[in-house]
Specification:
- Two copies of one chain form a homodimer.
- With about 525 residues, chain A is α/β, with parallel strands linked by helices.
- Chain A has helices at about 45, 50-70, 85, 90-95, 110-120, 160-165, 175-200, 210-220, 235-245, 265-280, 295-300, 315-325, 330-345, 345-350, 355-365, 380-385, 395-405, 425-445, 475-480, 485-490, and strands at about 5-10, 15-25, 25-35, 75-80, 105, 130-135, 140-145, 150-155, 205, 230-235, 285-290, 455-460, 465-470, 495-500, 510.
- The first copy, chain A, folds into three domains: about 5-105, Nucleotidyltransferase, domain 5; about 110-295, Nucleotidyltransferase, domain 5, CATH 3.30.420; about 315-520, Hypothetical protein af1432.
- Chain A contains 20 helices and 15 strands.
- A six-stranded mixed beta sheet of chain A has the order 8-7-6-9-11-10, sandwiched between helices. A five-stranded mixed beta sheet of chain A has the order 3-2-1-4-5, sandwiched between helices.
- In chain A, helix 15 crosses helix 17 (about 395-405).
- The longest helix of chain A is centred in the middle third of the chain and has 24 residues, at about 175-200.
- The model of chain A is unreliable at about 505-523 (pLDDT under 50).
- The interface of A and B includes residues 32, 371, 451 and 480 of A.
């Protein structure tokens, strides 16, 4: 049964409604989103209270979301409030006003906020241990993920709205303003930074500020992939971007490509916090998480049993994507089986390990999803779909390789193209070899009927013989597979030789025009 | 009920199986395709017979297709044979050998072949009258379409395999070879060419030769759209391409980007025929049809009642695409209704006619199809889907405008971008205006519940008031729609003013931060 819920993340800077369709534990899909720049925390730094104007903006947004929920028959609407609401002296007034609306309102403690963000990381990265940092409008959380579980975490009063109001007042930002801000941040974070340095682990960062900074760096670098989740932001790039921000008056900062207009005046504060953390812990880069508190809140609904974790992030990603573009499952499973057989049997030649096996299997799983677009060029459409979706658990390199494997599963000459710079030197050969396995499996299953039930591979001196196990001669499969001997030879250095029981004495070689009816040369 | 059939087009050059899923008269989808370069007509020019080798290649391909049909449980497999089989003295031997296979074998007469191709044109172009030319391996058909019906048509022995064998023997092509070929073609076509010149109508050309020539010209021109159907191939471009082909030895012709390897040695013959037709009829260009005899054969099944015509080609295209990516139909219909209301009411300002109304309606119909890819960036995915599919009945300009309307239906600043060169000078303004109508309709239907039942537009001196008819205050709609006042103003030169019954005395203006709860200034 499919469910539909809405979650509002009422931050100190922006409020955002996200709507999910899902089947618990099976698949989910984001189906709508409304973002409002509410700035609930505006003025808080000076007074410790929610201002009248800010409260009204927040109430307007809530009314809007409640109205949306009603008009669209949303099953459930949960509003999650963080720093500003939990800290303001007068937040009870605000909460009282919310009672008119039929919604679940949850004010998260600092630790809970940290916990939700960490859950999002645990379910969207292939990591067991990490430091997780979430910098919002009101507060910043730093948490420790260990064995995929939240170990500890804490909220600090270091949100970008708050810090901007406290420290950065001028039309331009002066050196002394930066110094004062940094001094304050350092005082707050000192013990935590010491722990981070001692107990090193990848730093994963979330929230609109770091996403926006990363986007600006990607634009500058002309990054070949349109994806933030999993992007590695180098400290050096961040340092350079901050220099550029500092050179400009506040009002002109949005002229930097990628910086959102409604973030431009407050983005520097957050950037300075990140720079300080990276400098103090002597860390060269951080990884962007496109998921955060909202997704954490969602995962608690989607995987209702604590600790709310997917068994395996990458596998879930692949299955979830397949569920969006469902294809013939028998054919899909059979291509997975045959490609795995080939990969395993050819291990003595390629020597690849578990990570490559998984990549090939993911490609076999997803090779036909482009059929959801159209039959013509479905290999290209499939690659487009893989590239244009978040693939939690995969690095950008893996996502690109997966897309390329899908792209070359049936035709074309496998090439890295414009993605080369985010791939590794031996990935071209890897792509050719994995493509050869996948393509052979695909064409040995050309009629989509699993009639090539199984295969046995023999690596001989000059050729690789593949014996097909089938009840009848799989004519289409022999014919079509034999057309791709060139790719196979390029991949494994041997001629491809296909044979069936019926053709024991003969065989089909990798000649395009040779036909599969026994009229081939004798052994 | 969904059907699944296969059609094999057994030409003199290539044999191709296409598989369609369809619901008669409702929707169809190409789901598989196997192409073999069989060259059944090879040697025919010299002997008037099917050669032994050619017959074997054709039989092998048929066996392959029959095997595919069996393995995939294809409901029906029809083989259509044309010129070579109908003319060869020994084709009965070939036909006898086919009796073992469970398939329908149809040898088309020259007129039938012409008729099938013409039907494909009538169902894939928005034209009533045209000359239709189909040049294959064995023969070339020229037909006259009148009032969307086949008036007359004839097959000529001018296929590219045949002409190449008859006239072009050298490693390089000499001037005298070209002259002799042209003389022969002219003798065959003279009366037809005279009729074409007298009774002028657009020339629509089909078949692999012209498609491949057009592809090469597109590559050369860096054409911004990856689509052949509907492409206008200029005579000048064809003349230049022929010059380049003539400069090269036959073996090197596939080095021209876009020319297929297995066509390179025979493509010149066809190109020369087209050049001659264009020259003799004094025609500046022809239009490529990506559809031909196969599609004609399919339409006879899909629309079983003669004359097998779709009532309206463009509308069928849009509906067929929607059927591939079905979205919430109530919401879709309501956006269509509201955008039409806006378009009609604003006619005094924009002055656009029926073609633009149809374009806007198509965009309203398809605006959400990108949701089939993902919610995030679904406007971009929708544009991708529109651009990457054949849209019969639309010109390339119309297809691009449709894609851009889908792309800008919810955000972004409407721009023509790289497509400018295939659009008209006033299309930028057209895009802005139609986008403004569509976007306003979309946001007045933001909660997808049709609660803004209707609207009344009043064009005032400085502003355009839109009165929304709704049972309750459509808060989300007012809020979200009012954010797009800038685009509206850019499109129509007036401020956008939204009002509801409840807000009779007030209104919502196009200020981002203004809230829709009556706190706006009085009239």
């Amino acid at each position: 049964m499919s469910h539909r819920i809405g979650i509002v993340d009422m931050g100190s800077g922006t409020a955002r409604l996200v709507v999910y369709d899902f089947e618990p534990g099976q698949w989910f899909r984001l189906t709508d989103e409304i973002r409002e720049s509410v700035r609930l925390g505006e003025g808080f730094a000076a007074t410790g209270e929610l201002s009248k104007a800010a409260t009204e903006r927040a109430l307007d947004a809530i009314k809007l979301y409640a109205d949306y929920a009603k008009a669209t028959d949303l099953g459930k609407l949960t509003v999650i409030a963080t720093s500003a609401v939990r800290e303001a002296a007068n937040s009870q007034d605000f909460l009282d006003k919310l009672e008119d609306f039929n919604l679940e309102f949850r004010v998260l403690s600092g630790e809970e906020e940290a916990q939700y963000g960490t859950l999002a990381v645990a379910n969207s990265f292939q990591v067991s241990n990490a430091w997780v940092m979430d910098l919002g409008g009101g507060s910043a959380q730093i948490s420790r993920l260990e064995n995929r579980l939240f170990l500890r975490g804490q909220a600090f009063p270091l949100g970008y709205v708050r810090l901007t109001e406290q420290f950065l007042h001028g039309h331009r930002t002066s050196e002394s303003e930066v110094k004062n801000l940094e001094k304050f941040v350092l005082r707050q974070l000192e013990p935590t930074l010491a722990r981070m340095k001692k107990d090193a682990a990848p730093l994963i960062a979330m929230g609109g500020t770091i996403r926006n900074l990363a986007r600006a760096v990607q634009k500058l670098e002309d990054y070949p992939l349109d994806a933030l989740h999993g992007y590695e932001l180098k400290r050096e790039a961040l340092e350079n971007l901050i220099e550029r921000l500092l050179e400009l008056p506040v009002a002109e900062r949005s002229s930097i490509s990628g910086i959102h207009t409604d973030r431009a005046d407050a983005i520097l504060a957050g950037a300075l916090v990140y720079r300080l953390v990276l400098r103090q812990t002597d860390t060269k880069s951080l990884i962007i998480s496109g998921q955060g508190v909202r997704e954490g809140a969602f995962y608690r609904e989607f995987m209702p049993r604590p600790p709310h974790l997917f068994p395996e992030v990458r596998i879930f990603s692949v299955q979830n994507l397949f569920a969006h573009y469902p294809q013939d499952i028998q054919h899909t499973q059979h291509v997975r089986k045959l490609s795995k057989k080939l990969f395993d049997a050819l291990e003595p030649i390629h020597g690849y390990g578990a990570a490559d096996a998984l990549l090939l299997d993911a490609a076999a799983y997803l090779h036909d999803i482009g059929m959801a677009v159209s039959y013509h060029d479905h290999h290209k459409h499939g690659a487009y779909l893989v590239l244009n979706t978040q693939m939690p658990g995969l690095t950008h390199r893996e996502q690109v390789l997966l897309a390329l494997l899908v792209q070359y599963h049936r035709k074309g000459d496998p090439k890295l193209g414009s993605y080369k710079r985010i791939l590794e030197p031996d990935d071209e050969l890897r792509l050719v070899r994995l493509s050869a396995c996948l393509r052979l499996a695909e064409f040995l299953e050309r009629s989509r009927s699993a009639r090539v039930q199984d295969l046995r591979v023999t690596i001989e001196k000059e050729r690789i013989s593949i014996h097909l196990i089938a009840d009848e001669t799989p004519r289409v499969e022999l014919w079509e597979a034999s057309k791709h001997g060139d790719l196979f030879k390029r991949a494994f250095g041997h001629d491809l030789y296909l044979e069936t029981d019926e053709l024991q004495r003969g065989g089909v070689q990798d000649k395009r025009r040779r036909t599969p009816d026994g009229k081939t040369k004798r052994k």
